[in-house]
Amino acid sequence: MEVEKKFEDLNLSPWLLNSFKQLGFKQPSNIQYNTIPAILSGRDIIASAKTGSGKTASFAIPILSKLSEDPYGVYAVILTPTRELAVQIGEQFNAIGSPMNVNCCVVIGGIDTVTQSLILEKRPHIIVATPGRFASHLTNGLKVALKFCKFLVLDEADRLLGEDYELEIASILEHLPPPNQRQTLLFSATMTKNLTKLQSIALNEPFIFEDNSKYDTVDSLKQEYAFMPPQAKDCYLVYILKKHQGQSCIVFVNNCYAVEAIKGMLNKLDIPTVSLHSFLDQKSRLAALKTFKSGKVKVLIATDVASRGLDIPDVNIVINYKLSNSSKDYIHRVGRTARFGRSGRAISFITPHDVTLVKSIESVIGKQLELYKTEDEEVFRHLKEASTARKIVEVHLDEIEFGVKQKERRAERNELQKKKKDEYETNENNNGNENKKRKNIENETPKETTKSSTPSKKSDKTTITKDNNSSSGSSSSTKETKTKKNNNSNSNDDFDGISLFSNKKKKTK
Prior knowledge:
Helix 13 (327-334) links the parallel strand 12 (317-320) and strand 13. The protein is globular and about 80 Å long. 43% of the residues lie in helices and 12% in strands. It is built from 17 helices and 14 strands. By secondary structure, the protein is an alpha/beta fold. This is RNA helicase.
């Protein structure tokens, strides 16, 4: 018989237990019950669990418990890949930590940088940030008090450790204390090789927790597919949304242009819809998310910006209008429904080109997708109206040059990323050349000493130094000594701020 899990068993502060009662937290989830004690004991963490299992609270609770014992700022830095997830994490810290008046600052793009700088200079207890904006503040000279930071958290760590964020993460790590002076906590719904690599590179004997399979979906989620020709996707979408009218639904699409085209089409067909993607300004993104969460609009069309971490408990259906090429992305997408024990439904649109991809997903999750039953006659009744509405919207998008702006924006971002990478590699090469020169000088020093000294004819030693107290003419008073190497290496060589991404070469003795 399984023992009932209780927050009282986790050695938490009494004020936190009272906060849980006010927030309606009844008992800890599996990941919370296993990781919170390890974090409180000072261990580093690598943790993976299914979506909707309470990963955010797993690190928020012990950080706030420790902070309440000795409150100061900046105590913890939490990094996450998307703005919406950063806002959500900030809200959870403020909710749980409200009895101790926790000061949590959210640092994301799309917000005035001057306002953020003023807040950061006041040393908030907790900083929740996206890597790009936070790294920008640090590299532009803003002095953030990170010297005594006790926690670094990477939420959705598998994505943050990819190439897209490599330079930003490296820049941030340069300003943080070394690994032996902080706790590093890594959380994600999917465990990857990047996370496994960290175990031997940057973490101090981490506690590793993996809840069930590393690629898994909850049992309460019904996963289905609808097989169709590519041209019929819109009429199938209209059919399903009207069939399940009144239910909350997220439709995932692969690019911003398609998101806007589908949103416009559905609005013209009297299906109220909002959109969420990276091409929207931050105010519009937050407004769309708020409207969808409130239930005023039941349909959200989104890119993978909405696939990770967002906690919207009442989502009934997730539709993959276009499957991602990554099985991990599929797991994160369908994880927006069937959260915290609720039931949910995921429907994937499959064309003949997607069959191989579907088989790959099925092998990863260990389940077969079921066929979503449709009435073809009803489906194709919507074909004409859907295609007409879609064309009207696309003409409008072309007139305002939406696609052109998107490509220009992507090109600018790629160019900036390339520039940063080139600068980073140049600095690395310069540092490498300086180290080589230093070693060459150190190696040449004994040779010069040999040339300048007058060795004894009978001596086979290569290096001889004369006693300063003896006369210059007395050859019998010479002493044979071993030349000492001058070790001027920096004590921080074991941690240069970017050790997450490069293996250190062994020092030559």
